[in-house]
Design brief:
By secondary structure, the protein is α+β, with helices and mostly antiparallel strands. It has seven helices and ten strands. Strand 2 and strand 3 form a beta hairpin. The protein is elongated. The chain starts with a helix and ends with a strand. About 25% of the residues are buried.
């Protein structure tokens, strides 16, 4: 009987210590209670929508300040390309330099008929940058690569080959006229924006349109380039 009484006393003393053990010695129990909490968690904030083409400078919108600089990466400004240069053209020149299409950003000049001001390249390493310099040297003096900074790279929002510029828009053209011109093409109707650029001589009117994919943008270029809108010939340009 004495052994039974001693066992009961030990059990009672351990029960009295249970709350202290739960709180301090078993943190995973606290985690379990958190997992079972009935408080509704707030969903993470949704990502901001990309700016519509033409709403700000063609070469992009500035990102929030304070973004961390990624170490080891170098930036360059590639020049020597024509108005209708595509990312694939640049990739052909930089073949073997360990860069991807996402490492290219085109900056366009409003004051020069939307000709590329330069193609900014993000290199993963110094050796990648040096490889590009050697590749360009083999191509002759047609192209030029110079050092750039992350502050030049960051503000540029790429058009990703989905934005098409319609050059030569008549002054009296409205959105409905653009819709009729692009009949049969898949694009975002709400993305149509007009802007005035300084071409050779007098200012020119241009419409920017965002398509649903790169394929649809190229399809519009192939099927609609140099067609007529209100008796005026329209030239198309796919922005990268």
């Amino acid at each position: 009987m004495s052994m039974i009484r001693n066992a009961i006393r030990s059990s009672l003393s351990l029960r009295a210590l249970d709350p202290a053990i739960n709180r301090s010695s078993l943190p995973f129990l606290q985690d379990s209670r958190k997992c079972l909490s009935t408080v509704t968690e707030q969903p993470p904030p949704s990502s901001p929508l990309p700016p519509p083409p033409g709403a700000s400078p063609v070469d992009g919108v500035k990102k929030p300040a304070g973004e961390a600089v990624v170490s080891g990466k170098l930036y360059g400004k590639f020049s020597g390309f024509s108005k209708h240069t595509l990312k694939s053209d640049v990739m052909n020149v930089l073949e073997g330099c360990n860069v991807t299409p996402e490492d290219l950003r085109f900056s366009y000049m409003r004051g020069a008929n939307l000709n590329p001001a330069g193609v900014y390249v993000q290199f993963p390493s110094r050796s990648s940058y040096d490889s590009a310099m050697r590749a360009i040297a083999k191509k002759g003096r047609l192209y030029r690569l110079e050092r750039a900074t992350q502050s030049q790279w960051d503000p540029i929002v790429p058009c990703e080959g989905k934005v098409v510029a319609l050059h030569g828009i008549p002054p009296n053209a409205i959105v409905e006229d653009i819709d009729r011109f692009l009949s049969g093409c898949l694009y975002h109707p709400g993305s149509i924006q007009f802007l005035t650029i300084q071409g050779m001589g007098s200012p020119k009117r241009v419409a920017l349109v965002r398509f649903t994919s790169q394929t649809q943008a190229m399809n519009a270029y192939i099927t609609k380039n140099r067609n007529f809108l209100l008796n005026q010939r329209i030239n198309l340009q796919v922005l990268q």
